[in-house]
Design a protein that fits this description.
- With 74 residues, the chain is an all-alpha fold.
- The chain is built from 3 helices and no strands.
- The mean pLDDT is 78.
- Bound molecules: zinc ion.
- Zinc ion binds next to helix 3.
Length: 74
């Protein structure tokens, strides 16, 4: 096994994923954030803070990352 870990792509991959998540937010099943519906609640599945709005939680949603994981059979 050659030293693939040496090419330090870890951080960049994470940034790209974050960017992608933000771009896909418009496509998401999650409710849009607004002043009366702030995205201030943690995801019930992964526990990440500020993932869901009160509407999302009332509908039993989880965050996009968890929804994706489920969708891909994880
Ligand atoms: Zn989650």
């Amino acid at each position: 096994m050659p030293g693939y870990w040496d090419d330090c792509n870890d951080y960049r991959d994470e940034d790209e994923q974050n960017d992608r998540n933000m771009m896909f937010a418009g496509d998401s099943a999650l409710r849009a954030e607004s002043s009366t519906n702030p995205r201030n609640l943690p995801c019930p599945t992964c526990g990440e803070p500020h993932r869901l709005t009160p509407n999302d939680q009332a509908l039993g949603y989880q965050c996009d990352s968890c929804a994706d994981r489920e969708e891909f059979g994880g």
